[in-house]
Write a structure and sequence with these properties.
By secondary structure, the chain is α+β, with helices and mostly antiparallel strands. It contains seven helices and five strands.
Amino acid sequence: AGSGAGEDMRAEISAAAAFVTRLLRAAGGVGEEQLRRFRECLQEAMHEHYKLHWFPLVPSKGSGYRCIRINHKMDPLIGKAAGMIGLSHERLFQLLPSELTLWVDPFEVSYRIGEDGSICVLYESPQPGGKVAKQLESRTSCKEEWRIGRSSPSKSYNMMTVSS
């Protein structure tokens, strides 16, 4: 069953795009149809961006290239997808955490909100060949991360993990 690299990254890209979409939904003010289109556009942008930088045999290779980052600058992939549904960068900065790092690697998608936050795993699947995907040391404080760096800490967010 030899499929191209593009086939192999679908689960990871889907988990990452769903996560960013959930952050937007939780912030409110964006319609469901817009959110659906945003998610599709983000998945497409990520697929294009990653297709020559996806190495299932060496999952960490190209990790920096695939890292999605909001750090007082909007990540171009998120910005592009938001532009397709008419959301400005200014609006995105209001809706999304000001510090967000999302790592989209073969077999694992993880994120960190805030510069000093814990790294939380969104998606994990075993690597072929019997290797076990690495366990991250701190998963206990992940739910707390959602409340850090937001203007309204009273909002409650639902964690959703995807596994295969």
